[in-house]
């Protein structure tokens, strides 16, 4: 039973040479289209929203200047005053995140629509908001969904796009992910969030704890994983970007971040 599960979870990796050739051939296009997405046609965004509303998986996160899209299953608002359970103050980002995460865990192919994050940005700053967008993009993308950033947050969207060019270490990360065991471990951590060593060991990616320790150390040294609170493993921001490239190469899926420019 365990062997069968291991075969299901460990995908056949791209060869390192193939990854290199692909990156060299479509370098700029790949960066734009698979790391963080590109400005999407409004028709494409409308179709994503309509499908999500039909499937009852559409979550809207809106500030006071924005309105949620039609058919949103859940609307979380950001305002000056708190009105539990669905209206949050800008200094309650962790509580807002918990509500979003609960929605993402509950449904398949979740879609999160975010508009007017200005109150959050005023409190937390542009850098933290860029990190927030990348994190939510990764969480939605890990479940086959999408994050839609509305045009009212144009400055934030432009900054996220500008920062989407990968670091020089991206190729090394991709080479690390060409190993099927490390690929499976990262896939599990991306999908599950912070995970303890014991939780990863129980998934039977390898047949011994010493082998798992080796691969976890390699993933940390390559910058894909880091240890967070209570020693739990988390995917780094750079690791999220590398993982999105691998997923895009493997699945040929559309970007998980759609940016409205209208």
Provide a compact summary of the structure:
With 262 residues, the chain is an alpha/beta fold. Helices cover 55% and strands 13% of the residues.
Features:
9 strands; Dimethylsulfoxide Reductase, domain 2; 262 residues; seven-stranded parallel β-sheet; globular; Arc Repressor Mutant, subunit A; alpha/beta; two-stranded antiparallel sheet; disordered N terminus; 13 helices
From the structure provided, what is the oligomeric state, counting identical versus distinct chains?
single chain
The separation of the N and C termini measures: 51 Å
**Count of helical stretches:** 13
Structural class based on helices, strands and sheet pairing: alpha/beta
Count up the domains: 2
Strand content bin? 5-15%
Low-confidence blocks of residues: 1-12, 25-39
- Which architecture of the largest domain would the CATH scheme give at its second level? 3-Layer(aba) Sandwich
CATH top-level class of the largest domain: Alpha Beta
The CATH topology label of the largest domain is: Dimethylsulfoxide Reductase, domain 2
> Mean pLDDT across all residues, rounded?
81
Compute the CA-based radius of gyration.
19 Å
Let me know the largest β-sheet.
Answer: 7 strands, parallel
Strand order of the largest sheet: 1-9-6-5-2-3-4
Beta-strand segment tally: 9
Shape: globular
Helix and strand pattern: HHHEHEEEHEHHEHHHHHEEHE
- Percentage of residues in helical conformation: 40-55%
């Amino acid at each position: 039973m365990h062997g069968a599960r291991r075969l299901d979870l460990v995908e056949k990796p791209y060869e390192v040479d193939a990854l290199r050739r692909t990156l060299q051939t479509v370098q700029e296009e790949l960066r734009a289209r698979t790391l963080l997405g590109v400005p999407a046609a409004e028709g494409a965004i409308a179709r994503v929203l309509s499908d999500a509303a039909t499937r009852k998986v559409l979550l809207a996160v809106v500030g006071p200047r924005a309105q949620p899209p039609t058919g949103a299953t859940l609307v979380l608002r950001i305002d000056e005053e708190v009105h539990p359970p669905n209206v949050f103050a800008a200094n309650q980002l962790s509580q807002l995140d918990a509500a979003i995460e609960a929605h993402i865990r509950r449904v398949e192919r979740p879609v999160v629509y975010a508009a007017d994050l200005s109150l959050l940005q005023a409190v937390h700053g542009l850098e933290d908001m860029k990190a927030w967008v990348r994190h939510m993009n990764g969480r939605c993308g890990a479940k086959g969904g999408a994050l839609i950033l509305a045009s009212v947050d144009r400055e934030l969207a432009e900054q996220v796009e500008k920062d989407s060019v990968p670091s020089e270490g991206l190729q090394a990360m991709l080479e690390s992910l060409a190993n099927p065991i490390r690929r499976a471990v990262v896939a599990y951590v991306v999908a599950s969030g912070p995970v303890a060593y014991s939780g990863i060991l129980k998934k039977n990616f390898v047949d011994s704890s010493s082998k798992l320790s080796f691969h976890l150390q390699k993933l940390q040294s390559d910058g894909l994983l880091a240890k967070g609170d209570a020693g739990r493993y988390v995917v780094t921001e750079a690791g999220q970007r590398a993982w999105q490239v691998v997923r895009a190469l493997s699945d040929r899926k559309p970007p998980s971040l759609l940016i409205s420019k209208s």
